[in-house]
Amino acid sequence: MTAYSEAQQVGQEAVRSAILDAATHLLVTEGPRxxxxxxxxxxxxxxxxVIYTLFGAKExxxxxxxxxxxxxxxxxxxxxxxxxxxxxRLNECGAAYRAYALAEPDYYRVMFQSALPGFVPSPGAMxxxxxxxxxxxxxxxxxxxxxxxxxxxAQEIADLLWMAAHGATxxxxxxxxxxxxxxxxxxxxxxxVLHSFLSDPRDERTPPP
Length: 209
What we know:
The chain folds into 2 domains: 56 residues, Homeodomain-like (Arc Repressor Mutant, subunit A, Orthogonal Bundle), CATH 1.10.10.60; 140 residues, Orthogonal Bundle (Tetracycline Repressor, domain 2). The chain has 10 helices and no strands. It has 209 residues and is mainly alpha-helical. Helix 2 crosses helix 5, helix 2 packs across helix 7 and helix 6 runs antiparallel to helix 8. 30% of the residues are buried.
């Protein structure tokens, strides 16, 4: 049974996801030249007409890959939110960032590592991406409002955390940091960034998720 026939039994959204997953994997493993409608159709086991109907031309497929990656990213960031303490919730957000990258490395490379050369997201696609980062901003803002952080704006702190998380995660995905060291180094880096903004030094003992 092909990925397409299995997805058909679930519904159109499953068909769409199966096509995007195959396209993303081809793109990352074989490069942009492999991203043809015919090749994707062969991988999924559907007709090229199905892909054209769902996504239009190749440009539509590229934007769909970007949007799917950020939609999954947003869901991952929201799914791990269990704490009422804003600082612990911020730590959970940081852990969820890395977990998403490790669970969806192909999409992560599409979103952040220029796997789609020449692709320029539309304003609507950029707005969708921004929604995911607003989760981090909201968590930082809640910490500032609660008096747990101080010394910079929510945007400044959120940007620094994002830069740190992205850098560490990208190095890990590229194989530059060993699997045994990656998680403790990641948590140490995030804690180091937050250290300068903690209102109470005792918050350094807030356990990471």
